[in-house]
Structures
1.
Amino acid sequence: MRVGLVGAGVISHNHLPHLLRLGAEVRVYSEAGAPELVAAHGGAVAVSLDELLDWAQVIDLASPTHTHYALARQALSAGRDVICEKPLARTDEQADELVELARQTGRHLYPSHVVRYFPAYARLQGAVRDGLLGDLAVLRFYRSGGFPVRSAWFADRDLSGGVVLDMMIHDLDIARWLAGEVTQVSATWTRAGDAGQPADTGQPADTGQAHDTGQPAEASHVLLTHESGAITQVSGVWGAAHLRFTTGYFVAGTGGTLQYDRAADRGFVPDLARGPAQGEAVPETDPAEDPYYLVLADFLGAIRDGTPTRVTAADGAAAVRIANAALRSARTGQPVTLVAGAAS
Amino acid sequence: MKIGIMSFAHTHAASYARLLRGEPDIEVRGADPGPHQAGEVRGAELARQLGIGYADSYAELMAWGPDAVLVTSENANHRPLVELAAKHRAHILCEKPLATTWPDGLAMVQAAREAGVLLMMAFPVRFASDFARLRAQHAAGLLGQVVSIRGTNNGKLPAERAWFADPGLAGGGAFADHVVHIADLVEALTGAEPRAVTAVSNRKLYADRTEAETGGLVMISYADGAIAAIDCSWSRPASAPTWGGLTLSVAGTLGSVDLDFFGPRARGLDAATGRPIELPYGPHHDVPMLREFTSAVAAGRQPQPDADVGLRTLAVMLAAQESARTGTTIAVRPI
């Protein structure tokens, strides 16, 4: 299978090696960093987007959020199947249009909500599906890491949607996956310090060194009410550069509770004099069961064999809708009502 | 120093009595007039078990001339007891929340002020050594500017006393029971004024035990730009080995600190049933709280947390209840 990867930033290092391992032929197009990415993992560089679209069967978008819509539209219109990093698009209308375009063209469209493939979250969903927790009542999710200063678009809320659309959308998606459609969204959002003008190197972040004195931070809390009556809290922080990537959940239902904390539930705890630097742009994963591999395997399998995927384009659009409702609520200061099941 | 305990309705009355009764120079006497819920050990019998003196009525307790009182009644009954104590010039340690309505809270603070008695709120968690460390690190600038606070105060629906599940006497459900502790910790940490509150709730857990909300999530926006979220749900199953706990995660521009106030515990398994054994250890936060109260009373200085903290945390709790009821964000009333 010929896969055209667009973008050569941090997350592309979590796409390219897995695509190659899955047996795909890969060419990479990016405004910057493609030769270095290919040198690190393999594949080939495409000199233009047109070349990539002509050559590839599948386009994998690992480009900035605000570019997803136009690129996905172009690829779908050219008859290509599309895998897209989350969020599926920056706006609700764009996401809906992509879902509709995929339907019309009969092409595959998959948003990479990779957290559904992280073992602790997959296990939770399995337990909920099997009724272990009974009727879900209260769900709580949190996620934090260093402010992504590696590329300037993250700090521009118009382009990225900030911590809500870039990071917390993972947990908003998980909450909907577990507890069903969302009818009301409210949010608080805050930012401190100067987001600065960090260099866009297209390279993995030199974590922990760049800006221990710059101190931009952004945080948000989001409350959801589900159609089922369950309630969810999602909290996110983009903070100091040295922060480890922290995620966790607590879910309570009539049948019991389940909780997970990445910092507490670790199977490998090093304490070495010459250990790796602190800070992570993406969480470290177990290579034997790497969620970034599993999500791409799921999508390429579906494209090849027509098998169902764990996450669909409609799920991606629904997550965008919830995240944008949160941004709207944070702006207006009042809860936002969603029409249940409006996900197309 | 003579200390009166006004009502044994709250389970904390017994733990305060146990801690105070052995103190030199402190004499403890309780009053807990009935009628009492069937099956609950109350009144003279509980006083006898606790080894403290007993008065048959609040009037008799006041006639004893206490220097100070602990008000540990049902939440909705704090006001008349605080007013009575103030009238008799007794300093007051009031169980949380201060009151269940805004007029009650204002009247109590007014009564204490007019009588010239000290009014302190019983928020023991802020006296934990770990919280003192957090405050010191925050004060030293190690966290930078605080942007986000996550607090959880999850427990079982209190079973030792039936009134906790009665929204009339408790002033609500999970919001009334658990929002104020974390609101107080933020108060003690940053001192920022709470501005707006949004909350959601449901009644899926313990639905057979109460008409009040058992699940509750609250967001607070502060004047300094920080935002907090509190899970105050009674989401600990009744069968759990311990009552629950309280955690706080504070994120600032220079880093974050996580606290688990009741977390440290020896863990194991019961061989007969396979059920977890959890044996929490560590100091009792009530000890330094009571010491702050009694030493302030002895010295005639205002202890902390004071009446204003009681009112501000009450305002947050009431805003949470109103927000969940109306589906809107509520401005926190200024004091």
2.
Amino acid sequence: MTKYILKRIFYMIITLFIVASVTFFMMKLMPGTPFTNQEKLSPAQLKIMNEQYGLNKPLWQQYLIYLGNLLHGDFGTSFQFNNQPVLSLIMTRLQPSLLIGAQAMILGSILGILLGAVAAMNKNNWIDSLATFVSIVGISVPSFVAGVMLQFYLAFKWHLFPIALWNGWESSILPSLALAFSPLAQTARFMRTEMVDVLNSDYIELSKAKGNTRWQTVVKHTLRNSLIPVITILGPLTANILTGSLVVENIFSIPGIGEQFVKSIMTNDYPTIMGLTIFYSLLFMIMLLITDILYSLIDPRIRLTSKEGN
Amino acid sequence: MTDVKITAASFQKAQSDQSKNQEKISAPSLTFFQDAVRRLRKNKVAVVSFFILVLIAVVAFCAPILAPRDPNAQNANYANLPPRIANTDIPGFRGKSKNAAGVETNPYITNNVPHDQTYILGTDYLGRDLFSRILYGTRLSLIIAVVATVVDLLIGLPYGIISGWKGGRVDTFMQRIIEIISSVPNLIVVILLLLVLKPGLSSIILAIAFSSWVTMARLIRAQTLQLKEQEYILASITLGESTWKIAWKHLIPNLSSTIIIQTMFSIPTAIFFEAFLSFIGIGIPAPNASLGTLLSDGQKAFRFLPYQMWYPAAVLCILMIAFNLFADGLRDAFDPKSD
């Protein structure tokens, strides 16, 4: 197990290195310089600026310096946004994004599991059809459309929640709801398929034969066994929420990393774009790793097969 | 004991065609595709979605004929007109809107719009006809999605087949590349590519295709690995068939259901990507309309002129739902085990 995790972490580091290199060279290919958005600068000023940011050095030197700094946890300095170091820029904006993302994930997956379970237990009747319809709508309606709708009705028309900005926990409700749709739909779909499978298995038959009630069977055997594979979609769900947050944070003007990313794109702020790309990839890979570890911890059958495989 | 006389009369002639009858095939034998289509036609939801998709596609592609006005023609005097159908009295199409103070106004009267002018879905902040823009926008979004999916297929299919067929080191190397690409969230890849490429239609298509071929390649590889072990493949290898021919004649036909299903799921994803990119402002450049740019324009005025967001959003949602439902139906039809 430890060996496996170490191997995965080693691959993660290599992947991050490649991602960092590729983004570095891509950013260098980008049209426009970070100074195009500023007022007219004299050639002398431009030269000073370029020197200050190390942009006058040859490309390979810039690259090596960048990689060296990365190893020290230095993601560079933002070209815009008051010349803050990228890392501190990310850190100050992390809290709202994490709160919204975590809330959306928890809410979405719990509701999704319930919806999927109810659908599977009522297979092929109207409850099932309704649940299927809800999950199709959840998958199809983009989070930004859901976000704008929520903002219009719940905040603007009915004044139930703050419309935008970040003033305490109430501000996080609507964005979390908007982001929760897609995880809800995906877990519901997955859960339904899994649970239908489990309900058809022999041990459920045995549990019924032993005289367990329907609820005992569901809680003790069905739910537990169907939940195991649902863990595998944690990774993709994280990716969904990450990308969703880019635009949902913009709709609700939340000072999170998603909003920062979009702003940085608009202002050609290379170091921030690179830093956030690496950050997002790291987060995503960690989630994938956690998923795999959780999966093998919860389901002893997985561990067995991996031992045999070795 | 009496003698039992066995004469020819005690025998009965057996019906010679009895065994034939038992083995007679009553229904015509169907090919795999005919069978799948038969199952698909039984699925009402999928059939309805299919017709909705066809309808939307036909209407969108006839945009140059159907659109009442030039989608990019501006008319500052007629800006932000709410939906109205001339000479009728249908709720929601009376040409009335509420201003910031919540008072109902009729911009048609205040702007002196001739009485017989019809803006079915109103106009946007530059006075462009929203109905025409939605028609053209849907067309553009569909074109982007379909072309991106074709490109995605053109990369993903050979990649998956080569990776699965070659196996060994080539496979490991190719899979590592896939792992690296998929360890960055898809949309981030699209955004980064779009920043490097020149903004425009082809860049968007390339960027979307580049981020989605990975899923296709993975599925194709997994299937190829299985197919490789089949006897008929072994037979063609033994007969000295070239790898190219095996891929064309044996692999691709057997992969076709995976390809069709995955393609149908890729299209709505591509529509979503395009809408997303245009929504955050790095998609289709102005003044062209796509569903994404219409949404993003509409969102800016959403509080007081909600129709500008409502209609494009509705079209996008219907399109996405219909695609997903149809793809679901296809999957069930092609892969009966999955149900």
